[in-house]
């Protein structure tokens, strides 16, 4: 874990927001090193220079995410969106299979199962997800932290219930990877996008699969999914990659060039320090809300705080330089490494007026 002094110096070197930016659950801020990498990658195209170094960035990102997720890099596919990864998993299920999902979970986690049309998709409240796994459930699909309100799933209970009934598990870490320690090895499949808590640009997402690839079919495979990609550019891919790379989608090279630097920063600071910082600020906000007579959605231990009835304050807060979200009438604030106690207090002061 980084010392407080090192944490603060790294953050000061990388971020200088012009607002109290409390909206990482929508989009994370880009570190300065990431912006520089994006510029350098764009210059390669502008100046007609070889792009091969950008493919090295993809592999560096794959390895870095694998370390954050606690799995070998051979189990990580580099794609573009959680919805695409969910679609691959949905396509692998037999007709009539039951998929258990969470009520009002993020669309990318659930919609591909619905559009199949021949799956039995069952939806229950988050607090009942583990107890709702039953004989015949083929897959349990859920977010580790809910996008709308930050509630954290009891993933250990879900894992045990799934094992008891022979169900597989699929967890979206998009709202948790980057501040909440992740154990992707505990689940059959998991995914995450790059542009929120991982502080990267849009256009990258990761999928973690079992060592045996989990019976998935690479229905979206193109040339990058070949064991020898540069020999797989024309006609059918004769030999798919022997690892999770067979589920890769054509890489947004600029995105991965920037994301590599963002992931380096997260590793330099360390997830324990990031977790303590983000949750500490969220808890400070929760305590301040209680003093103002407001009760947030219960989400202990989360870096995301959602306050019912205050979503309508979002436009005025934005005009005052405080960036938050309005989610179904709730004010949602999300706290990450570049936020400070001053940001929390500024938001509380604005809400008290």
Q: What do these coordinates show?
A:
- The protein is of the alpha/beta class and 353 residues long.
- The chain folds into 2 domains: 4-29 and 269-352, Aspartate Aminotransferase, domain 1, CATH 3.90.1150.10; 44-267, Type I PLP-dependent aspartate aminotransferase-like (Major domain) (Aspartate Aminotransferase, domain 2), CATH 3.40.640.10.
- Helix content is 37%, strand content 14%.
- It has 10 helices and 12 strands.
- The strands form 3 sheets. The protein has a 7-stranded mixed beta sheet with strand order 2-8-7-6-5-3-4, sandwiched between helices. The chain has a 3-stranded antiparallel beta sheet with strand order 9-12-11, with helices on one face.
- Strand 3 (98-102), helix 5 and strand 4 (120-124) form a beta-alpha-beta unit.
- The mean pLDDT is 97.
| The top level CATH class name of the largest domain | Alpha Beta
The helix/strand order is HEHHEHEHEEHEEEHHEHEEEH
Rg, please? 21 Å
Helicity range: 25-40%
Model regions low in confidence, pLDDT < 50 over at least 5 residues: none
What is the level-2 CATH architecture name of the largest domain?
A: 3-Layer(aba) Sandwich
Name the strands of the widest sheet in spatial order: 2-8-7-6-5-3-4
Taken together, the total number of domains comes to: 2
Number of helices: 10
> CATH fold name of the largest domain, please?
Aspartate Aminotransferase, domain 2
Which percent band covers the strand fraction?
Answer: 5-15%
Global structural class: alpha/beta
* Mean pLDDT across residues: 97
Distance between the termini: 38 Å
Tell how many strands the DSSP assignment holds: 12
CATH superfamily of the largest domain: Type I PLP-dependent aspartate aminotransferase-like (Major domain)
Q: Can you tell me the overall shape? A: globular
Largest sheet: 7 strands, mixed
